[in-house]
Amino acid sequence: MAKIVFLDVDGTLIDYHAKTPASAKTAIDLARKNGHKVYICTGCSKAEILQRDLPELDGMIGANGGYVEDNGEVILHHSLTKEQTKHVIDWCGERHIGYILEANSGRYYDDTFLEQGPDAFARYAEGKGAQHVDREKQKDRIREQFIYVSGEDAYRDDVNKISFVLRTYQDHLDSITEFPDMIAHTWGGVGESAIFGDLAPAGITKKYAIEILLEHLGADQKDTISFGDAKIDLSMFELCAYNVAMGNGGPEIKEAADYITTDVNDDGLYNAFKYLGLI
To answer: Would you say the C-alpha torsion 69, 73, 75, 77 has a positive or negative sign?
Structure first.
């Protein structure tokens, strides 16, 4: 029976240096040749995914559920309104917090993010095991891969979600109160060690997006398998019939999993695909 596989990206399909292990590419290619469908299910926007060296896929769920695409056909796309985006940007400005506007057209950053983002990205990578990440190289990466925006040009109507640097965990708690019309998450760490907050349209989850895609495909929930490494992936686990945690995943995702594979850089995907009979 053909399966529908949903893969988180960072820490699952790719490592924390944004590299896709060769074995992961091989596993996906073989699984698709065997008739299975493979989709990524990620917090990333399409623009960010297009900058990654990923294998061929059947489609994607992006923005933690705000965007759904099947073989190039857009099935769902929920964006923040221009007014909501303005509210977040102005709030960040008052607090001197750097932000990233994540849209399908690109990732947009401001001056404050160029100041705070390199260290935040470096701490994120170091927290996942990278050694002595060069902050200046992180600054260069932002300039190369992101789009600078300022003033009223930042008040866009095509933003899927907004990530922002957490000065302390209180910024995340305050964002929950300040933006009741949005859903607030953190990433880059667990609990008060989180490095980033993010805000997206209310009601958007990976679970919701998978339901929409399954309906579009005329597929059955019993044929679904999900892979994840972090708390944000738990909503996938709520819906999918079988769930795999990466060996490098956190305790919450491992506790919820049906199977724990090896680390992303220790052939985690390949080993799990083989164990499950996908290849």
So the answer is: positive
pLDDT tens digits, residue range 114-142?
999 999 999 988 887 778 899 999 999 99
CB neighbour class for 83 (10 Å; exposed up to 12, middle 13-18, buried from 19): exposed
Task: Give the separation between CA 123 and CA 135, rounded to whole angstroms.
Answer: 9
Cα 227 to Cα 236: distance, rounded to the nearest angstrom = 8
Domain ranges (residues) in the chain: 4-78+204-275, 82-201
Predicted TM-score of the model (pTM): 0.87
**Residue 68 main-chain phi, psi, to 5 deg:** -130, 130
Residue with tokens 């091989």: 26
E-strand ranges in 138-214 read 147-148, 159-165, 182-187, 196-201
Question: 82-201 maps to which CATH number?
Answer: 3.30.1240.10
Q: Hey, which CATH number is domain 4-78+204-275, 3.40.50.1000, 3.50.50.60, 2.60.40.10, 3.40.1440.10? A: 3.40.50.1000
Reported as a single tens digit per residue, the pLDDT across 62-110 is 999 999 999 999 999 999 999 999 999 999 999 999 999 999 999 999 9
CA 118 to chain centroid, in Å, comes to: 19
The per-residue pLDDT for range 236-250, each reduced to its tens digit, is 999 999 999 999 998
CB 167 within 8 A of CB 95: yes
CB-CB contact of 127 with 29 (8 Å): no
Instruction: Report yes or no: 108 and 149 within 8 Å, Cβ to Cβ.
Output: yes
In angstroms, rounded to a whole number, what is the distance separating the alpha carbons of residues 13 and 28?
A: 10
Summarize pLDDT for 250-259 with one digit per residue, the tens: 899 999 999 9
Q: Where are the alpha helices (DSSP H) in 75-168?
A: 82-95, 111-127, 135-145
